[in-house]
Amino acid sequence: SGEEPPSTDIITLTRHVLNDQFSLGAAATGDLTLLLTAIQTTSKFIATNVRKARLINLVGLAGETNVQGEEQKKLDVLSNDIMINSLRASGKTAVLVSEELEKAVIIEDRYKGNYCVVFDPLDGSSNIDAGVNIGTIFGIYRIRPGSQGTIEDVLRPGSEMVAAGYTMYGSSANLVLTTGHGVNGYTLDASLGEFILTHPDIKIPPRGKIYSFNEGNSMFFHPPVVSYLNSIKYPASGKPYSARYIGSMVADVHRTLLYGGIFGYPDDKKAKTGKLRLLYEAFPMAFLTEQAGGLATTGTKRILDIVPKSIHERCPVFLGSRDDVQDVMKFYKETA
Ligand code: AHM
Ligand code: MG
């Protein structure tokens, strides 16, 4: 029988997004496609560097010098730099917000475009040295009509994002994306250097069997969270949930999208507004989760409805399977 010939009709991320744009007809300019191309390039760069981090001494603290006497950049600093450079050079952005930078970057006229990108260049960086999955998270707004690109263009509810996604750097690099028409997952084919559609139309199961919280913080948790966790650990059915917590939001959310269940990082007596950042962690993940048929709440409020007051603010997060997230919300209602 011999070997199968290779497929000559591969669906790359760019082709897939372009196809979406074709279906929009005249409204589409191709700008978003070009912006996403820039994001793909940064993900390929970061994936490559995460992989060779051990070899070329990217692990560890920034400020160290290598044998040639060159300054070594920490992976998260490097990831931030490549994203800023590449997004600016795309000519499609007006405002950039990065977890790594205290202030928003306002793009100069020469390169200015119509989109704003909020991102965490390398989330879960405490996991880098152990070789555990990490990722890049991003959200995209279109600037408001008539705006020249100011911070007000990103201080808007997550429901106004036009696209969001993440790339997870694991055994392979997986880019998961929504442009508001469902969620698709792409896997980097390293030999082609392209993200190939491998997980079309991801849908979260309506109920899962896994919960994902940092329960080490239990002594600080508020009563609704404690009661909820007890309800899944000591259920009347006698079938408790399994615990899975990687401590990398991208990896924990990725598993939740594929297998179902619930991921939570609540506010508590110590972290008064939770830990995760609203703009470039909670919003993109909430957008993806809803587009996959799940829910994302602070416990009492839909995450995508929050209006940010500042670019680095935090918010409590519960997201995942619809029924599981509704269960948490019930406990919040009961104790209100
Ligand atoms: P970081 O942006 O400093 O990497 O922190 C965000 C990470 C998330 O990836 C993860 O969900 C969370 O912090 C884990 O926090 P903790 O170690 O408190 O459980
Ligand atoms: Mg982060």
Describe the 3D structure.
The protein has 336 residues and is of the alpha+beta class. It is built from 7 helices and 13 strands. Strands 2-1-3-4-5-6-7-8 form an 8-stranded mixed beta sheet, sandwiched between helices. Strands 10-9-11-13-12 form a 5-stranded mixed beta sheet, with helices on both faces. Strand 7 and strand 8 form a beta hairpin. The radius of gyration is 20 Å and the shape is globular. The termini are far apart. The model has no long low-confidence stretch (mean pLDDT 92). The chain binds 2,5-anhydro-1,6-di-O-phosphono-D-mannitol and magnesium ion (MG). Residues 99, 120, 123, 281 line the site of magnesium ion.
Condensed summary:
By secondary structure, the chain is an alpha+beta fold. Helix content is 29%, strand content 21%.
What's the Cα radius of gyration? 20 Å
Mean pLDDT: 92
- The proportion of residues in beta strands is 15-25%
Measured distance between first and last alpha carbons: 67 Å
**Helix residue percentage:** 25-40%
Instruction: Give a short account of the largest sheet.
Output: 8 strands, mixed
Task: Return the string of H and E elements.
Answer: HHHEEEEEEEEEHEHEHEEH
Q: Which parts are unreliable, with pLDDT below 50 for 5 consecutive residues or more?
A: none
List the total number of helices: 7
Shape: globular
Instruction: Give the strand line-up of the largest sheet.
Output: 2-1-3-4-5-6-7-8
Structural class: alpha+beta
- Bound ions, cofactors and other small molecules, one mention each: 2,5-anhydro-1,6-di-O-phosphono-D-mannitol, magnesium ion
Quaternary status: single chain
Q: How many beta strands in the DSSP annotation?
A: 13
